[in-house]
Design a protein that fits this description.
- This protein is mainly alpha-helical.
- It has one domain.
- It is built from 13 helices and 2 strands, in the order αααααββαααααααα.
- It has a two-stranded antiparallel sheet.
- A hairpin with a 5-residue loop joins strand 1 and strand 2.
- Helix 6 packs across helix 8 and helix 9 runs antiparallel to helix 10.
- The protein is globular.
Length: about 400
Amino acid sequence: MKSQRILSIDIFRGLTIFLMVFVNELAGVSNIPQWMKHVPATVDGMTFVDVVFPAFLFIVGMAIPFAVMNRIARGQRSFDFWQHVLTRTFGLLVLGVYMVNSGEMNAEASLINHSWWAALLYISAILIWNRYPKTDEKLKRFLFIGLRIIGVVVLIILYFLYRKTGPDGQLSGMTPSWWGILGLIGWAYLLSIILFMVANKNLTALITLFVLLFAVLLGLRSDYEFLPSFMVWLEGQAGHIAHTLVTLCGIICSLLLMKDGVLEQPMNKIRNMVALGILLGFAAYFSQPFGGISKIAATPSWALYSAAICCFVFPAIYWLVDLKGFKSWANFLKPAGENPLLTYILPPLFYATVGYAFIPAFLSSGFPGFIRAIVFSLFILWIAKWLTQKGIRLHL
């Protein structure tokens, strides 16, 4: 199996990150159509906004086979490989939990202003996870290590300065009320890469594991009628399983693409990926009785519909960019595709340092608010490009 990097994956990743920034900004805009918002938990359905997060899970999955093959080609030891996987997962979980708690902070009870706390959080993340240049100069190496240590120390201090009001009305410190978007990505990444390695990187074996995992999820969503009692404990993990299914779909899509080389028999690859999308669409339709369609509840139908959409969108980008060579249209997405974590945390860092007071009221409602969200998202991509050029490139 030949490993080769293709531009369409970076563009798809960049587009997804851009949309994540855009829909997060759009969430603060009132008087816009419901299809521009997340569907409420009590409603059976989904909008394009509900597809953005699973699209990133899908692209995480697409990147896994390429990354694994590259590490194998470099002769990386198994211990080093799993150390990298676990370290990356841990970083996503930690950052996800901190970001969740930032939104739940009781600023009056805490020992620090919320804006300062949030700004220091994201600055620390940059110090810790920046990809510093390799150098033979001892002074620079010590400097880079020192910056990472400062970031870790600040995160620890922020932990002890933090207070929030719990469900019982009592003050408490930081707790993982949920894992946050980054944390959910971390769990899906870890579970998917474990399954990918268990399947020995084999497409047929991985599809078999996907079907088994899908059956387990259906069982969890059907009052355990099809599951033995000893598996009931998985109820609390149903969301992680749904997210992992989407990531596995991305891996399967990449394996279809990588077979015999990513640019060999491209139309066959496109047909295979679209066929996968059609099959996932049928599976999503017939699984609607198992919880309906809901991003909030992470139902099987929502997960598979989202993966099916990705199986249609990615081949279109692959055909346009890698086969036809039309790629200049996506230049503005390049910083988000190459530096996704930095791009994702820039908006909360921006608002932590600048605040919201500068936004006029008319730019928070209706069509002007929609335009503001687009302009802000493009502005974030410009900042990400500038910082990337200055050597700030985050890597978990």
